[in-house]
Amino acid sequence: MNDQIQTKITKNLLASALKEQYEAFISRDLGVEREVLEDLKEAISAPQVTVITGLRRVGKSTLLAQVAKKYLKNDFYFVNFEDERLLNFQVSDFDMLHETLISLFGEKKTFLFDEIQNIPEWERFVRRLHDQGYKFIVTGSNASLLSQELGTRLTGRSIRVELYPFSFREYLRFREVKTPDLNVLTTRQKGNLRKLADEYIAFGGIPDALKYPELGVHKALYDDVLYRDIATRYKLDNVKSLKELAFYLISNTASLVSYNKLKDLLKLGSVNTVINYVDYLENSWLFFVVNKYAYSVKEQQIAAKKTYGIDTGLIQSVGFSFSKNKGKLMENVVFLQLRRKYHDVYYYKTAEDYEVDFFLPKEGSLIQVAQHFDSLETQERELRALVDAANEQKKSKNLVIVTESEKAEFEREGVKIQAVPLYEWLLQV
Questions:
Q1: Which structural domain range is residue 21 located in?
Q2: What is the percentage of the chain residues whose pLDDT exceeds 90?
């Protein structure tokens, strides 16, 4: 009891923290304007709670600052729940928080809450004030917790926006490179874009890691997610197994994995443990799991999965011997660009067991990634897979092979296929 009294948040401590947070927030470097900022305009003018979710250090706080500057003028409160001074903040403290904010900044109708998942039952306060006409824009780093909390008390009252590391367009803006007209690229421009695409694969798109390459941001971020967001939050005893699983996945990105084989390989005891750990890693935004496309849900569940990392810079900093496997990293970059725009992304296996890297059923798109596309054998294999898949999925009309540098058009059995360099594809999608 004495410990609780000593650590209880006081009004003076709260006022001091909130004032410092606000001053730091409004003077924050706005960095590269994010592409989702335009999409947020409609969400912010709508009455629902706007939820921005994504990996730690991916730029959610900076995006909030961009939102505040572009859309909110000075009519908002800002609270960062990652602040260690708010470590013991409870749901019962929200009324004191609101009172303190009014005393410091006057009455406002919009709350910006950063890393809200740190406060248990935060959605109770949000719902109460939302019902009174207040607007909330909140960020969080755990997709599952946010979904559960929003689902329990804010069903139908929230709009979710996902933030990813920089896209290639954003990376070019970060590097202060103007995007050229893709219709009239010179040889020099093609060479420069290819070099920049190689850099993008190597360094990834996590803003702080690009700004401060000497600080080891990737490793610190990776450890934070494993220990703070997963092991501590889910009270895991076996952190060693979690680390081994994460390391295996990050070292084998864009590869097929079987949960049964992972269980045996890592001696994890049960498939359920593997499933739970993979869920934790996915909910914390370190990985994505892609299912095989199948009409049967059961077939999707039992088929091998493909996993992709959130960022190729992080993959190479933390994973094992990835420098030599550029094709897999290209595939990872293509996946991330698709995932920014589409939720239903699958891999495809034909009846003849040819594999197509990505299938978007709603769009009818089949996408293959081939680093080297200059040999006839490679061309025929990749084209055969796409043609067979297109014939099986009769609505498929957009067939693309993403290459390192080759650009060409093919026609097989009446099916048209475009080969496009990675840098060009990333700027078109």
A1: 2-162
A2: 79
